[in-house]
């Protein structure tokens, strides 16, 4: 499982405050903790007013890149913002995201052509998030075919089927699984990703719901996930699911994670 660490995101109140107060130490600490917990990419999302988004992202990227070697996942709804900060990334990472909304692919694909960068592609368009599976698959086809024109192969694309809240759509997980299966039948090398928190919107015990979503999504074949790698219960779910599915010989990864304290016993503060 490819882990995209979610914690450097201005929608989280403590991060919003750190951005406002230019608290470098707070952001650096989040970068180091997530890298040590095993994140493969670190999401950076400013979530500020549009006029300061570029400057804020550059500030975040600079702190993260000076603290750790983990590649960035540059997260902005505005492709023009991504285009502006892109040259300041030190190593290939992940763009979060394109979709068929506006001309996002047309801005992002040319800048990652001929690089090792990968891209998250959301299955939505100018009509919004589809209710059905077929429209999600159709949008995927359009985005993958456009990518081919820039020599961006399916293995560099992470399709995000945009999971709906279970409370609003009882078929939400089932739709995610079916979309994943159909997309992978069309493009076996493609990756499928998801955030974990949408599923539990409006429900009590959200983190428990998110953990069970993770188990079922891994079983279905999800390749990457945007999650909190410092959440011990979530990471335990991830390792134990891989082990249960026969993907962890001698439970080596599980045991190593336990020994290295990634999933170890809860530490009680003295
Ligand atoms: N798909 C894509 N990108 C995305 C999302 C997605 N980016 C934003 C979002 N969804 C994923 N990011 C977050 C960031 C923080 C939280 C949830 C989603 C969050 N974090 C809690 C915190 O840090 O306080 C803790 C969560 C926990 O312990 O598990 O709520 O869907 N492409």
Automatic annotation (TrEMBL):
Record bears the keyword Acyltransferase:
no
According to the entry, every stretch annotated as the Pterin-binding domain falls at 1-246
SUPFAM superfamilies in the cross-refs: Dihydropteroate synthetase-like
Name the Pfam families for this protein.
Pterin_bind (PF00809)
Any stretches that span the bilayer, and where are they? none
Q: Which UniProt keywords apply?
A: Methyltransferase, Transferase
An example Gene Ontology cellular component term from the record? Answer: cytosol
**Protein's UniProt keywords contain Lipid metabolism:** no
Q: Which GO terms describe its biological process?
A: methylation; pteridine-containing compound metabolic process
Q: Name one GO molecular function term.
A: methionine synthase activity
Q: Which residues form a coiled coil?
A: none
Similarity comment: family membership:
Belongs to the vitamin-B12 dependent methionine synthase family.
Read off the PANTHER family from this record: BIFUNCTIONAL HOMOCYSTEINE S-METHYLTRANSFERASE_5,10-METHYLENETETRAHYDROFOLATE REDUCTASE, METHIONINE SYNTHASE
The entry's protein name is 5-methyltetrahydrofolate--homocysteine methyltransferase
Q: Which organism is it from?
A: Desulfosporosinus metallidurans
């Amino acid at each position: 499982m490819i882990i995209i660490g979610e914690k450097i995101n201005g929608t989280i109140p403590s991060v919003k405050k750190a951005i406002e107060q230019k608290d470098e130490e707070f952001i650096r600490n989040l970068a180091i903790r997530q890298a040590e917990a095993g994140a493969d990419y670190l999401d950076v999302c400013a979530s500020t007013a549009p006029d300061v988004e570029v400057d804020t992202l550059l500030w975040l990227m600079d702190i993260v890149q000076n603290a750790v070697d983990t590649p960035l996942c540059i997260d902005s709804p505005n492709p023009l913002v991504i285009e502006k900060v892109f040259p300041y990334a030190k190593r290939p990472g992940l763009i979060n995201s394109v979709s068929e909304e506006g001309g996002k692919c047309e801005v992002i694909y040319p800048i990652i052509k001929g690089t090792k960068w990968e891209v998250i592609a959301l299955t939505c368009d100018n009509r919004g998030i589809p209710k059905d599976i077929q429209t999600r698959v159709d949008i995927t086809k359009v985005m993958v075919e456009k990518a081919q024109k820039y020599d961006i192969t399916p293995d560099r694309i992470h399709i995000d089927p945009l999971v709906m809240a279970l409370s609003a759509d009882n078929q939400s997980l089932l739709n995610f699984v079916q979309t994943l299966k159909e997309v992978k039948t069309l493009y076996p090398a493609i990756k499928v990703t998801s955030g974990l928190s949408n599923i539990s919107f409006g429900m009590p015990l959200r983190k428990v719901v998110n953990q069970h979503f993770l188990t079922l999504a891994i079983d279905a074949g999800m390749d990457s996930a945007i999650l909190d790698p410092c959440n011990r219960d979530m990471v335990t779910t991830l390792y134990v699911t891989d082990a249960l599915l026969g993907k962890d010989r001698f439970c080596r990864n599980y045991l190593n994670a336990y020994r290295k304290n990634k999933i170890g016993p809860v530490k009680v503060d003295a």
